[in-house]
Amino acid sequence: MALINVRERSKLAAMEVLAPERYDPRRELNTESTKTVLLGDIATLNRKVVSPSVNLGRCLVLDTSDAREGFIISRRRSVDGSDIGSVKKAVEQRCVIISRLRPYLRQVAYVDSDIPNAGECTIVCSTEFFVLRSVDEKSIAFLVPFLLSSRVQEVLAASQEGGHHPRFADSTLATLRIPLSLLSRRDEDSATVETAAKMYRRAEAAIDGLVAESERAFVMADSEHDENYE
Description:
Blueprint: E1 36-38, E2 43-45, E3 49-50, E4 58-62, E5 67-68, E6 71-72, E7 79-80, E8 88-90, E9 96-99, E10 108-110, E11 122-125, E12 129-134, H1 143-148, H2 150-158, H3 170-174, E13 177-179, H4 180-183, H5 186-228
Parallel strand pairs: 4-11
Antiparallel strand pairs: 1-13, 2-12, 3-8, 4-7, 5-6, 8-11, 9-10, 9-12
């Protein structure tokens, strides 16, 4: 079924953009009967970028494929700051990152303090990410399930613009409306996300331990095989 949205000229987007996707009614959360707060009032977009430089020291570079369903899944090794390739965005612990490219891939993650191989590295990410920071000291981890919710995902999908690689804009993110009922659970939900991240790291460590045991088993088997032929 076709979607029709009528706008007065005075209500067109800046520069009087006429692209039909700009006015897709699915780009707005239907929260008229619910009290809400703008995401931009809770978190700011960190726009700080860094260029390749030896002064960066060791860096852990996160690509869009390293964020998935709320967690950083990277197993990348750190590199020298002069080898990060292109310009990247600066990332801090306790930030939330979301890819502006192909939102259906659900590349959203909380940046926890135990990312493998991060150590004392500077963490940077692809410029395809939007990096959200709390406007105060309170955790914004609760934004992860909010951004992964079906209603928000529909808005992000409808907000993509461009031909070859459609993306959604930072304004789309900043103007998402968070229901006050969700905001009232902010601390509890943030703590749950942070605990989930710790559990995820423990699961990673458990699998890593089993992989190491498997490797040792092969080494022992090879050693026994060699002894049998001496």
